[in-house]
Amino acid sequence: MDISTNAKSRSLVLAGFRTASTFEDIPIINLEDARNDDPVVRRALADQIRDACINVGFFYVKNHGMPEDTISKAVDAAKRFFALPQSRKTALDIHRSPNFKGYTALLGENTNPENRGDLHEGFDIGWEELTGTSRTDDGLMTGENVWPADMPGFREAALEYYHSAVRLGRSLFPLFALALDLPETFFDDKTTKPAAIMRLLYYPPQTGPVDDRLQGIGAHTDYECFTILWQQDDVQALQVLNANGKWVNAIPIPGTLVVNLGDQFARWTNAVFRSTVHRAINRSGVERFSIPLFFGTDYDVKLEALPSCVSEDYPPQYEVVTAGEYVKSRLEATYAHSKVEH
Ligand SMILES: O=C(O)CCC(=O)C(=O)O
Ligand SMILES: [Fe+2]
User: Fold this and answer.
1) How many domains are there within the chain?
2) Of 5, 250, 298, 339, which one has the fewest beta carbons inside 10 Å?
């Protein structure tokens, strides 16, 4: 279906909507102008973002404002954590947490139900002030972070990255709003206590015969509005699926981060913004690390199709649920296969 010719639709967003997304490249967007005083300049940037969101669902950002030092300290922390003896990591197992905080063992997660488990280890954290405690008022998703003992500087490095990525994420929401023909402030009251989950990820190199059911992370879409992903410069692993069924490599580009849309945005936008299927396979022969931060709206906010993404001929495609119900149900499904009683 291509509804771009729908005469009844006056929405600029719907006017650009194509369902056959046969991209071969992932665009690079320069965020230098994100806070430019001139609304015309911000509008031009939002137009580029709209194009990427409608046609690809993925883009790189450069001049994103996250300090290199913050990134490298978090990557070092991840390397130290995953090198710990297995028993120290297992002590923080994510299944012990009421709300998905802590360590995921190799094969502990299965993002694609057709697969045998994902060949990565992970460590998940949510919002926590550097000098305070975790937030405890998230209803459905409430849960304290868990931290490894005797790892000086680990918590600080992880939280510094978390807050820096959340700042970047907050600066993207006004651009997404503009891209959707909404006031720049539209998401402000929906992102008052950022529902952001950060993961440190470790992918061991995969050797031996190719097993399509055993991948670093199986084919999936992300659950929140968007993901900000740091990926290791020298290892190609991330791939993005286009409408021709071709896996397009999201090659690591030094100095950039990857931004990809998740299913919350697909729901807000009635699938006009694309939550594109992706996977990661590390056959490079060396270890790979990555750090996604998944940024959604507050957990009590309802995911409802925006007026600019609905027309008489294109009614809402999804039932309305809250962001918290939605993320929790997706996380439960992801971890169900490795659940054991603790
Ligand atoms: O590690 C990567 O490059 C991708 C990770 C990912 O897709 C995810 O955690 O949802
Ligand atoms: Fe993902």
Assistant:
1) 1
2) 5
